[in-house]
Amino acid sequence: MITYELLMLLRSVPKPELKTILKRTANAIFDKGGFIRKLENLGTREMPYKTSAHGVVYDRASYFLYEFNVPPSSIDKLFDEYGRDIDIIRRRIYKKKEAETFECTLHDELQPPPYRKNVQDLIAEARKLDKPKFKYNTGLDYYPFQK
Amino acid sequence: MIKNKMNIFLRKFTSKIITGNKPTFRACSSDVPQFDMENPFEKEKQECLLCKYNIEVDYKNVKLLSQFQSPYTGRIYGKHITGLCTKQQEIVEKEIVKAQSAGLMATYLKEPCYLKDPRLFDVEKPIRPHRF
Ligand SMILES: [Zn+2]
């Protein structure tokens, strides 16, 4: 089950109106057969860049974050539905990030080139393209005849 | 060189026979030092800032992300400046693009409220020289 994050920039409106907007957007998720894990208010502030939506230019927005689960097939429909909502200035749906563990490779990257793993891999890759050398199969480590 | 190695080998072999397979400490007659210890000059393993303090980079954390952004052009600094490992740099770049797309973060400038944040790295002292 994939948890999605929906970040919505709403028109800055008084509280009662905001309530209906949030109810409408939440109901859209429920209608698709999903459920909401979290609803967070990230505050109302000036946007970093002005945005034109539905023929109006906005430079102030209320930020809201939904965390929800819906069937993946209905994400497109949900995104489209929010796009037609004139109270929503901007919306983005991302997958919720899961913590991944990995080893820090900075130490390796600071080595001189021949000691770095990616450089060694490149050299090994280039060696594969070398022309085959004829082997004499004499068991000697030198060529016994005159060249 | 080879002769010295042979000498060491022979001495080890004979001492094992004499003491009955029991390794013992004894004075070395030859000048050849016997090093069993690991490299004493090996440098301490370096870790990047985000790995060291185990910081989870997220697109909602704009205050952190904007520290990797140039105040003049809004572009993301390269990993030779930020001093991050390849993986962390990749994550930071992805999250910045996500934040900018979501309307959380400025694209062509660093937002004025973040301009006085402490510097995580010195732009003038990159690990490797700039491309230009
Ligand atoms: Zn790292």
TrEMBL record, chain A:
Database matches in CDD domains: bS6_mito
| GO biological process terms, semicolon-separated | translation
One term of GO molecular function: small ribosomal subunit rRNA binding
Cellular component, GO annotation: mitochondrial small ribosomal subunit
User: PANTHER family recorded for this chain?
Assistant: MITOCHONDRIAL 28S RIBOSOMAL PROTEIN S6, SMALL RIBOSOMAL SUBUNIT PROTEIN BS6M
Q: Which family does it belong to?
A: Belongs to the bacterial ribosomal protein bS6 family.
Q: What is this protein called?
A: Small ribosomal subunit protein bS6m
TrEMBL record, chain B:
Please give a single GO biological process term from the UniProt record.
Answer: mitochondrial translation
Keyword Transmembrane in record: no
TM annotation in the entry: none
Q: Which residues form a coiled coil?
A: none
Alphabetical UniProt keywords: Ribonucleoprotein, Ribosomal protein
Q: Might you report a single GO cellular component term?
A: mitochondrial small ribosomal subunit
Question: Can the keyword Ribonucleoprotein be found in this entry's annotation?
Answer: yes
Q: InterPro entries annotated for this entry? A: Ribosomal_bS18, Ribosomal_bS18_sf
One GO MF annotation is: structural constituent of ribosome
Highest taxon of the lineage: Eukaryota
* Family from the record: Belongs to the bacterial ribosomal protein bS18 family.
**Entry protein name:** 28S ribosomal protein S18c, mitochondrial
Q: What's the source species for this entry?
A: Rhamnusium bicolor
